[in-house]
UniProtKB/TrEMBL annotation:
<dbReference type="InterPro" id="IPR027417">
    <property type="entry name" value="P-loop_NTPase"/>
</dbReference>
<dbReference type="GO" id="GO:0016887">
    <property type="term" value="F:ATP hydrolysis activity"/>
</dbReference>
<keyword id="KW-0813">Transport</keyword>
<dbReference type="Pfam" id="PF00005">
    <property type="entry name" value="ABC_tran"/>
</dbReference>
<feature type="domain" description="ABC transporter">
    <location>
        <begin position="7"/>
        <end position="250"/>
    </location>
</feature>
<dbReference type="GO" id="GO:0005886">
    <property type="term" value="C:plasma membrane"/>
</dbReference>
<keyword id="KW-0067">ATP-binding</keyword>
<dbReference type="Pfam" id="PF12399">
    <property type="entry name" value="BCA_ABC_TP_C"/>
</dbReference>
<dbReference type="GO" id="GO:0005524">
    <property type="term" value="F:ATP binding"/>
</dbReference>
<keyword id="KW-0378">Hydrolase</keyword>
<protein>
    <submittedName>
        <fullName>Lipopolysaccharide export system ATP-binding protein LptB</fullName>
        <ecNumber>3.6.3.-</ecNumber>
    </submittedName>
</protein>
<dbReference type="InterPro" id="IPR003593">
    <property type="entry name" value="AAA+_ATPase"/>
</dbReference>
<keyword id="KW-0547">Nucleotide-binding</keyword>
<dbReference type="InterPro" id="IPR032823">
    <property type="entry name" value="BCA_ABC_TP_C"/>
</dbReference>
<dbReference type="InterPro" id="IPR051120">
    <property type="entry name" value="ABC_AA/LPS_Transport"/>
</dbReference>
<dbReference type="InterPro" id="IPR003439">
    <property type="entry name" value="ABC_transporter-like_ATP-bd"/>
</dbReference>
Amino acid sequence: MPGEVLLETRGLTKDFGGLRAVDRVDLRVEAGTIHALIGPNGAGKSTLFNLIGGSLRPTAGRIFYRGRDITDLPPHRRAHLGIGRAYQLIHVFPSLSVLENVRLAAQALGSDNFCFWVPAARLQRYLDQAWAVLHEIGMAELADLPARALPHGHRRWLEIAMLLAQEPQLMLLDEPAAGMALDQIPRLIRLIEEIHRRGGRTILLIEHKIDLAMRLAHRVTVLHHGRVLAEGTPEEIARNEAVQQAYLGERAWTPSSN
Ligand SMILES: Nc1ncnc2c1ncn2[C@@H]1O[C@H](COP(=O)(O)OP(=O)(O)O)[C@@H](O)[C@H]1O
Ligand SMILES: [Mg+2]
């Protein structure tokens, strides 16, 4: 439904000791959009993702998904509702093949994740799903390679493949271009556009590279010192004086950007 708010945070706040990393954030992500979250290093972007995914509990505020209050749900319950968070590399089994890793990601959200005996037909379904995803993202020829043998840039692709295998409605991508060779970035952009267009998925994307976020996103929210500094279309954000200042300040004080 166009205009439907899929994800909403109200007054979301996270303190780490005396540091307020996320400060009363009101975020509304509309269904079917690509929504970018940008901001200088340390702005609180990843912390906000961790709150949405459920790996961190907020100090204050609430989170709603399809109008339902999910603030107190553990991460796996949120995943079952359709909130998909890109795997950190720690979840990748290095000695298993690329295909096996993607199959396990698909299976993890199926009902068989704790069963020793899984009916063969269902295993086959997870395997088919894994193949389909690997074809979709152009990794089929790497399917039999052990995950540990993947070149560094390809590990990000594996993470995205594992996320896609879970068929989330809301995809949370935290700096998917980080660690990728520059010549792979156009392919990443095409893939994200393709995932969005074909699957009708909603994508919440953290991106440090502003130009990438601006190219992909329908809406952009800018975080600075844990607060929402600005929210709007990419054109509005590009013209925003306060946003330019925030990024200029970063360039002056944190030359080692990543
Ligand atoms: N687990 C943690 N414990 C203490 N401080 C943290 C923790 N995670 C993040 N921070 C701090 O919170 C602030 C926001 O960090 P983060 O959300 O990673 O920012 P971003 O992703 O925008 O670069 C930073 O000052 C960071 O040092
Ligand atoms: Mg971060």
